[in-house]
Amino acid sequence: MNAPVRNENLQLVSGNHAVAWGVKLVSPDVAPLYPITPQTPIFEKLVDFQSDNLLSTRLITPESEHSAMAAAIAASATGARVFTATSSQGLLLMHELLHYAAGARLPIVMFNVNRTPAAPWGFWPDQIDSLAQRDTGWVQLYSETPQESLDSTVQAFRIAEASNLPVMVNHDAFYVSHAVEPVSIPAADLVQSYVPKSVRELRLDTGLGHTIGAPIGQEGWNRSRRQMDAAMQTITGLTHEAGQEWEKLTGRSYGPLETYRTDGAEMVFITMGSMAGTAREAVDVLHQKGIKAGLIRVRLFRPLPIAELSTALAEIPRALVLDRNYSPGMGGVLHQELLAGLFGINNPPCIHGFLAGVGGVNVPVEALEKLATEYRNAEPDNNPIWVD
Fold first, then answer.
1. Could you give the CA distance from residue 274 to residue 356 in angstroms, rounded to a whole number?
2. 250 with 5: CB under 8 angstroms?
3. What would you report as the CA-atom Rg of the chain, rounded to the nearest whole angstrom?
4. Cα–chain center distance at 155
5. What is the mean pLDDT of the chain?
């Protein structure tokens, strides 16, 4: 492996400002943005960069999130590199157009700050806003830290443009979006070499003589979904590749999954986003008490990397899935997706699902210790279990 380039600038920044730094370094052509708590600091920081003549991206401020996505689609359709950001109700307002962006195979990158949707009204961390978009055709990545949010923003452009699929990167409101941590900011030329701009073949151009998103027959529409499926099949590999190349440049490695102390584990926590930090600490405490616990953090949720998850769980008898979301009538989304995805594999683990931290409720290390102890030998129950 090549020695990583260490020409980086270490700063104390929030998760949202880390995202803005990632956007600045990539320097997309267009960024339509509409403010919404708790995403607004991303927008504000990009405006600061532009005011200081540090950002050449054209910022567009339409009248709503729906219009922001419409502008993103129009710009991307012409071949422009496009970024946008939103949260909660804003993402839900975009829902109609998320299908359009994916169906038109537009490599838009969007950062979503996971927040509770109404009603009742709230501003707290909860992943159901993005998980409710899982069937739109967008790739979904989930970040745990401000550093990972910067790095994932950069990597998202590489993945999107290699697959011609839009990519949504997510991090938890406040736990990550407003948390201030040391973040290594790579040099601009390093990022530009990692995501060089190129001319896309699929674009609106009078010289090419084709359309995007025009009415189509039944067979054509069916064929478009088969092509989307083929592109989705490449995403796990592209995520591996993007992380490996990033490691060569920065020393920071990312893949579809992160595993922690899973070798010889008798049980593992499985979760996404900031909950992984608490689970990682709980794993260490449980080891001190003689319980061999581990952690699998799902970074790539859509497409769900079932083959990698099957391998990671091959020798582990029990998994405790922690969902910071609630699908009414079904339970935790990650739990249900794992049950479906792992159905039929040889020697599947006993999987328990927990609704942990829904609505941003704090889940202390002690609560996860208690879960590990209580469910160490329990039979699985597909009904959702609420964590107090």
1. 12
2. yes
3. 21
4. 11
5. 95
Q: Of 288, 236, 238, 282, which Cα lies nearest the Cα of 260?
A: 282
pLDDT score of 220 more than 80: yes
CA distances from 39 to 146, 225, 268, 299 (A): 14, 32, 32, 20
Give the predicted TM-score (pTM) of the model: 0.95
* CATH dotted code for 8-250: 3.40.50.970
- Which pLDDT belongs to residue 7? 67
Question: Distance of alpha carbon 368 from its chain centroid, rounded?
Answer: 24
Dump strand ranges (E) for 124-218: 139-142, 167-172, 180-186
- Is the four-CA dihedral 127, 129, 132, 138 of positive or negative sign? negative
**Dihedral, CA atoms, 257, 258, 262, 266, nearest 10 degrees?**
-60
Report which residue type is found at 180.
V
Fold for domain 257-386? Answer: Rossmann fold (3.40.50)
- Element containing residue 354 per DSSP (H, E): strand 350-355
CATH code 3.40.50.920 region(s) in the chain? 257-386
Render pLDDT for 197-206 as a digit per residue (tens, 0 to 9): 988 888 888 8
CB 268 within 8 A of CB 313: yes
Residue of 192, 181, 177, 205 lying closest to 79 (CA atoms):
205
Strand-pair category, 293-298 with 257-260: antiparallel
